[in-house]
Amino acid sequence: MAKTKPSWPQVTGPLAQHAEGFRIELSGLGYTPLTAAAHMRLMAHLSRWLAAKGLETSALTSSTAEAYFAERRAVGYVNERTVGALRPLLDYLRRVGAAPTADAAIPASATEQLLTRYKSYLTVERGLAAATVELNVRLVRPLLFEHAGGQESRVELKELTARDIAAFVVEQSAQRPRSIKRVVTALRSLLGFLYIEGSIDMPLAEAVPSPPSWTLTGLPKALSESQVAALLVSCDAETATGRRDLAILTLLARLGLRAGEVSALKLDDIDWRRGELTVCGKANRIARLPLPSDVGERIVGYLRDGRPSTAEGRTVFVRAQAPYRALSSTGVTTIVATAGRRAGLGTIGAHRLRHSAATAMLRAGGSLREIGDVLRHRRAMTTAIYAKLDLEALRSLARPWPGEPR
User: Fold this and answer.
1) For residue 289, is it within any domain?
2) Does 152 lie in the same domain as 66?
3) Tally of domains within the chain
4) Most buried in the list 81, 142, 205, 405, measured by CB within 10 Å?
């Protein structure tokens, strides 16, 4: 079957001088000729629009791009309708200095300045991951804006009281009952920061009420051995994407890694001679884990016959489509969910494979302490929930039912 030849457009206008360089850039990033030609057509259309508006490349800010796509949508285009479609071109133009790197910054309000300092505290002092930092900020933002004195130029927190904190928790529990425990955690973190910084005079973190909590009431939702096997078999090891997904699923199921830990794994984190894996976990804690032979073989299979040679950076796992950048934690979660549906198991979360790894170790005779070491739990209580899965040991502790012989 003959391959379709791409139709390369002629770029005129202010972007014409950058057309050849951008075309070479697309090829280097691993885009197919057809996809690269589509990006070039978008570049040609944008360049004509800039020329019609009397604008130069230096005027290509985010707001200008938004205005361009607003007109593009208005005239009925069905493809490339949002600024995201321009990301490869904007990245290239900014890198060569042809387009501004960022729009002029809008002066931040006092509340936003405070949140910026809080972000820095969480990142530098607490060592939290970026996603955790953003979640904390999103959860506490309503409290700060509520007590900003109605003015964006200042933040009045000196008069904040324990009653205000309790009222906020009650309000949030009504709005988001399923995530109130996470709200409380973020709120205590913020109040601790405000006290250290001197924005409040009392340690109000101690005044945050605790939502009801029943420790160890549930059971880990682990997959059976046959279900894990079905998940792995569902990957097509004859394709590059299948080899990548198989390596990721094996890492999750055998070592119980978190999705973020898999996405952050770098080539330098694998010590092939010693058979060890360096994992950067929560709060940037570093741990070394043994690398099982089957996990190593599947990673090697992907690196040799799956990972694109044009991949950016040193992360082990990258996207399946150009540009071949690092796979995100959301991408890892999506791979697990897709594999679950493919195997007929429904939508499965990546954390279930962590539970499955712990359960498999328990069935193989591993102790709770050993499981906790592999999963890198800081508290023994976190691992204790797996004790409920050892039914034989629990039967020896159970008291007989009244009336039954001992």
Assistant:
1) yes
2) no
3) 3
4) 205
Active site residues: 258, 282, 351, 354, 377, 386
Rounded Cα gap, residues 27 and 4, in angstroms: 17
Mean predicted confidence (pLDDT) in 276-304: 90
pLDDT in tens, 208-261: 998 876 555 555 677 889 999 999 999 999 999 999 999 999 999 999 898 999
Q: Does 87 map to a domain?
A: yes
Q: Which amino acid is at 303?
A: L
**What is the average pLDDT across 286-298?**
93
- The counts of H helices and E strands in the chain are 17, 3
Residue 230 counted as domain residue: yes
**Domain end (from 177, 207, 237):** 207
Q: 281: which residues sit within 8 A by CB, 6+ positions away? A: 258, 261, 287, 376
59 or 284: which leads in pLDDT? 59
| CATH number reported for the structural domain that contains residue 150 in this entry | 1.10.150.130
pLDDT digits (tens, 9 = 90+) for 75-106: 888 888 888 889 999 999 999 999 988 654 45
Same domain assignment for residues 160 and 190: yes
CA 306 – CA 2 distance, rounded (Å): 25
120-125-128 Cα angle (round to 5): 75
**Of the candidates 42, 62, 95, which is a domain's last residue?**
95
Q: Residue type at 77?
A: Y
* Parent domain of 24: 16-95
Place of tokens 């951008």: 22
